[in-house]
Design brief:
Length: 509
């Protein structure tokens, strides 16, 4: 009987010359991707981490058993009820954006499992599809138990099936990257940029924070998912190597495009969790510090390995690391009823911490939070709408996120006219991507355009309830309803200053 190392390469490499059909008919460019090359140009494709199907099943079974064991031990409702309320909303945010995006990745991998140009690539992509199906099932399983405690967890499954503005932005990214992309763009955009460049930030960084918070179930979930990422993340490098040989400009474009689009997504999902929804005592580092460690350094090394240039917008990206997720969080907090999770109002201690971590930009942002805080002081606890926006906000015609690029002093929005229609973008890189591929993006309608077309209601309450599908029991609120000890203490000092009784103040009035 042959040993593993004697037969594994034979099982990986099963390409052959076609006798009954032309190679380009079996692998058309529309399905296989650009540049179209004969199979001989791909036969050097190689993945460093190799596995057989039997080994794969055994390893995955062991990992699943480990997740189930942790769930049985500490995955009950009462275990989650002990955790910090703000942190639980970081869990809700990730639980909703993760599983069905992973399911879309199943489709992308399966397309590569058929139309990728080397048999070893097709085999690895098939394992990747099985990985992503597992990543879909784990959060759906773990969060389902929590729905009876908190209906916001129902959005773990419902999110991508809704017309919520965050879901629209999420689908816009996920559909293009994971479902509509051919295997070459999928490998570079997903496997090389998204998974190698960004998921370490999400899974390793957040696992560390979950450990500090005491959320062992979330920690185990993301760690179990991350152990699979290393396998199919390796697809991207050999694909990029081949494309660089034949069309280096296109390779550079795909890297630049998907780095920017991936950055915007992670800035929202992971930036919110690290800088606002993790309890201050449990924060090990800021989102910016995690990006510098897990994204910037790694990405620079990867570019250097391939002889690629840094994206032309690199300085804009570095500026955005300092402020973009703060701008989106402040915008989303002010329109919190339009989403399915709750928000924490940063208090004096949190704002002091953020000032130390973001010395260059926090002076621009702090007045925004002071104004929101003052609205809470005036309204008192429980009065959500006094610190809430009343009209819909604008969205980028590329990324579909709110138009809050730049700073409170200078917005980076760009206006562009295409085929007689005016488009607005949150940033120059989003406009640049649109100009390169207008046929992909020009027909898409953001929330505001749907309102103007009569497809969605203009009244905010109707928009939230009827179009976004959020009831008053589910829509986002302040996590403490304004009942922060520091805020109540400040309000008492204002109402009853030292040396005056409440009665005397009432009589004077």
């Amino acid at each position: 009987m042959l040993k593993r190392d004697q037969w594994l390469d034979l099982a990986r490499k099963l390409d052959w010359e076609f006798s009954y059909v032309d190679e380009k008919e079996a692998f058309p460019e529309a399905a296989s991707g650009h540049p179209w090359l004969p199979q001989t140009e791909w036969q050097g494709w190689d993945e460093p981490y190799r596995t057989s199907y039997g080994e794969y099943v055994a390893n995955q079974h062991a990992k699943d058993a480990s997740v189930y064991a942790v769930r049985d031990a500490i995955g009950r409702v009462e275990d989650f009820q002990k955790l910090d309320a703000a942190w639980m909303n970081a869990v809700k945010l990730h639980a909703a954006t993760l599983p069905l995006a992973e399911f879309a990745a199943v489709i992308g991998n399966l397309r590569a499992g058929r139309f990728a140009r080397d048999s070893a690539w097709r085999t690895t992509a098939t394992f990747g599809a099985l990985d992503e199906l597992r990543h879909t099932q784990i959060p759906l399983l773990l969060m389902h138990e929590l729905v009876r405690w908190d209906p916001q967890f129902d959005w773990t499954h419902k999110f991508f099936h809704s017309n919520d503005w965050v879901a629209i932005a999420g689908r816009h990214l996920v559909d293009e990257l994971l479902i509509a992309s051919n295997p070459i763009e999928f490998a570079i955009g997903t496997n090389f940029v998204f998974e190698t460049g960004f998921t370490n930030l999400q899974f390793i960084g957040l696992a560390s924070m979950a450990h500090r918070v005491g959320d062992r179930m979330f920690e185990k979930m993301v760690q179990s998912i991350q152990t699979d990422e290393a396998r199919h993340a390796q697809i991207g490098r050999p694909v990029l190597e081949t494309v660089l040989k034949h069309d280096p400009a296109y390779a550079q474009y795909l890297v630049d495009k998907w780095f920017w689009r991936s950055w915007l997504f992670f800035a929202v999902v992971t930036g919110f969790a690290m800088d606002y929804l993790t309890p201050l005592r449990d924060r090990t580092a800021s989102f910016k510090e995690f990006v510098e460690e897990w994204v910037i350094d790694q990405f620079r090394r990867a570019l250097s390995d391939f002889g690629l240039k840094r994206p032309w917008y690199w300085e804009q990206f570095l500026s955005a690391v300092d402020i973009y997720h703060h701008m989106v969080y402040a915008s989303a907090y002010t329109y919190r009823a339009t989403v399915w999770f709750n928000f924490a109002l940063p208090g004096p201690d949190e704002r002091a911490w953020l000032r130390r971590k973001y010395t260059r930009t926090w002076d621009l942002l702090d007045p925004v939070w002071e104004r929101i805080t003052e609205r809470w002081r005036q309204a008192g606890p429980g009065v959500e709408w006094y610190s809430h926006g009343a009209t819909p906000v604008g969205f980028c015609d590329l990324c579909q996120l709110v138009l809050c690029g730049g700073t409170p002093e200078r917005n980076t929005a760009e206006v562009y006219v295409h085929d007689g229609r005016k488009y607005i973008f949150c940033s120059e890189p989003c406009l640049w991507i649109f100009k390169r591929e207008p046929e992909r993006y020009a027909a898409h309608k953001d929330v505001v355009k749907r309102i103007l077309a009569g497809e969605a209601p203009a009244n905010l309450i109707e928009l939230v309830q009827r179009y976004f599908g959020l009831t008053r029991f589910v829509w986002g609120k302040d996590v403490r309803g304004g009942r922060y000890p520091w805020l109540l203490e400040q309000a008492t000092k204002v109402v009853n200053p030292p040396g005056q009784s409440h009665k005397k103040m009432t009589n004077d009035k």
